[in-house]
Amino acid sequence: MAADLNLEWICSLPRTWTYGITRGGRVFFINEEAKSTTWLHPVTGEAVVTGHRRQSTDLPTGWEEAYTFEGARYYINAQC
Asked: Model pTM?
């Protein structure tokens, strides 16, 4: 299950954790102590829904690029 990003998510991060946002708008979490990252919130184990989609001028009209929670790229025909 995924959850929307909100202030509670940020405030509930453990002391050694912070977060980042990819160029595509996807939130990830950083464990500064272990020098590792994850798509899943370290307390809840849930991914954050950010609507990480973007339109590209390289795609045909009506198509958008998006990413799964695992980071795989896929394309959406928004006209359907």
From this structure: 0.59
